């Protein structure tokens, strides 16, 4: 599999919104989105997006989107239902995200049965291919003039919501690979941008 072109690999962009790492083992997932990356582009026809009812009140914190309120979340499906849906989309794919290790830690905490093929981190790829400049997701989108493209793909969406950030990571992946002549195959991408599926020290969440 590693010798196939990266555009032919089973890639799935993913983003989670949670209550925050300071909750440690009690951190709850509030929203999740996945979008397959097919032919190097996010396929919105196969996108999955869901709020998640955490089963408890969510404290108001600066990094939690104003749209993720207790009232809205109380009407969302519970973690078990969402986990079943995620299993169909995640298993066997390489998960793509910006600082994806943070999302994977939370995903693995709630759904240890999920078995992705690996993790591809656009933050790590940016550090390898773009050594100078800010590395947050929003800063990179602005640097490459990609924000309008994401807005067109996610009409009515907004940064810091799961679907918007998922599509942003997928679009950024293609742009970063375009600038890196050394990345052509899945193996190349894994060697430059993968992070371990096992326990690892996390980097601060960046946007």
Task: Give a written overview of the molecule.
The chain is globular, with a radius of gyration of 16 Å. The relative contact order is 0.20. The protein has 207 residues and is an alpha/beta fold. 36% of the residues lie in helices and 16% in strands. Strands 1, 2, 3, 4, 5, 6 and 7 form a 7-stranded mixed beta sheet that branches. A hairpin with a 2-residue loop joins strand 2 and strand 3. It contains 8 helices and 7 strands, in the order ββββααβαβαααααβ. The two termini are 31 Å apart.
Mean pLDDT value: 92
**How does the helix and strand content classify structurally?**
alpha/beta
Percent of residues in helices comes to: 25-40%
Order of helices and strands: EEEEHHEHEHHHHHE
User: Which value, in Å, is the CA radius of gyration?
Assistant: 16 Å
Helices, by number, come to 8
Largest sheet descriptor: 7 strands, mixed
Low-confidence stretches: 200-207
Number of strands: 7
Q: Give the distance, in angstroms, between the N- and C-terminal Cα atoms.
A: 31 Å
Shape: globular
């Amino acid at each position: 599999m590693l010798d196939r072109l990266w555009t032919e690999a089973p890639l799935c962009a993913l983003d989670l919104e949670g209550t925050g790492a300071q909750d440690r083992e009690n951190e709850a997932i509030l929203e999740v989105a996945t979008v397959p990356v097919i032919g190097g582009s996010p396929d919105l026809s196969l996108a999955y997006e869901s709020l998640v009812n955490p089963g408890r009140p969510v404290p108001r914190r600066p990094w939690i989107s104003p749209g993720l309120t207790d009232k809205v979340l109380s009407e969302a499906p519970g973690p078990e239902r969402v986990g079943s849906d995620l299993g169909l989309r995640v298993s066997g794919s390489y998960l793509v995200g910006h600082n994806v290790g943070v999302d994977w830690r939370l995903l693995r905490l709630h759904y240890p049965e999920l078995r992705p093929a690996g993790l591809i981190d656009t933050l790590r790829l940016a550090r390898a291919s773009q050594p100078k400049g800010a590395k947050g997701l929003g800063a990179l989108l602005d640097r490459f003039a990609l924000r309008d493209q994401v807005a067109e793909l996610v009409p009515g969406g907004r940064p810091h919501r799961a679907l918007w950030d998922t599509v942003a990571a997928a679009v950024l992946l293609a742009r970063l690979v375009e600038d890196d002549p050394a990345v052509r195959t899945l193996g190349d991408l894994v060697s430059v941008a993968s992070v371990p599926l096992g326990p690892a020290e996390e980097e601060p969440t960046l946007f």
